[in-house]
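Before the break, one more example. Copy the sequence into your notebook; we will annotate it together after we see the structure.
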Amino acid sequence: MRRTAIGLSPPMRETVLMRRSLGGATVKTARQLEYRLHHLCIYDDRPRESMFPYLRWHHGITNYFSGAVFHVTGEGHSDYTFMGCGGRAYQIQLEAPPFQFEYERNWWRDHGRGYNHICWITSDARASMEQLLANGPTEVMPFEEFPTYDGFVVHDPEGRWVEIMEYTDDIFRVQEFTHAPSGECGLEMVGNAELCSDVDAMAEWYQNVLDMQVLERFDHEDNSVVVMTDRDYDPVGRRTLFFLHNARHDFEKAKLEAHGPHISAILYQAKDIERAWEDALWAGMEPLMALHTDPMTGLRTGHLSEPCGGNTIILTEQYAPALKLATAA
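Here is what the structure looks like once it is written out:
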């Protein structure tokens, strides 16, 4: 096993720091667009039932938005429940039918309950769409102005949905918890993982196009795990992490065969991982792979199945990579 500590190094290509041209027009760079990881959206037609295992597992609701007051369109309306746990900034969003747009209903028809997309916040959504479309993604939802934010959705190069939002209202925000590990086990939701066909290509794309940073990577034989974060990373107060990996375990290989590259897991950490595991099982999560020491990362790790369609949760011991480098950056 090879472990490489990288830290908050500059992006791999100077193009991130330069202005690029698209049809003669100037396009903002990823660095100028200030991308920040925000939430994972889960499609689920029974959110009131599915949220209770999360609430029993030390989560809290940060916001609820209903179709009667938020995102009413000619096609449908919203039903959003945002939840967080212990850590600052990163959250999950349960989104229920009938959904707002036809493309969402088509995804629901084809996939059902599942991890649907990752959302990044930007300082300029319109410029972000120009920048992303100039770098490989394809459009899923065109740029649209909503009452409280502007946004759009694209595919990344392997087909996962990427949502981009810019808050435009002076007051409206999805609320965040302060950093306060939850429960006696000290549980924190810290980010998500993506199962990739080509880990290296996607790591390079996320660095160059969304200004993500590689903190550390682990390699063994044909397997890789790349640990990434955004520009607001702080190893104590905002430990938002983003894992890219290939299919190592049988259940991952089966899901890759069924769904192709996809958002594979929510990431959690705990001060007392044994207690966090016990609490998860009591709360209603199902075991996929019992607690063990991961031979690649060296971290105490367990895999669980969550209630919104049997999607995967990865629980690890506390892990704050590149502490000195990140603090100094």
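The mean pLDDT is 89. The chain is about 20% helix and 40% strand. Try to locate both features in your own notes.
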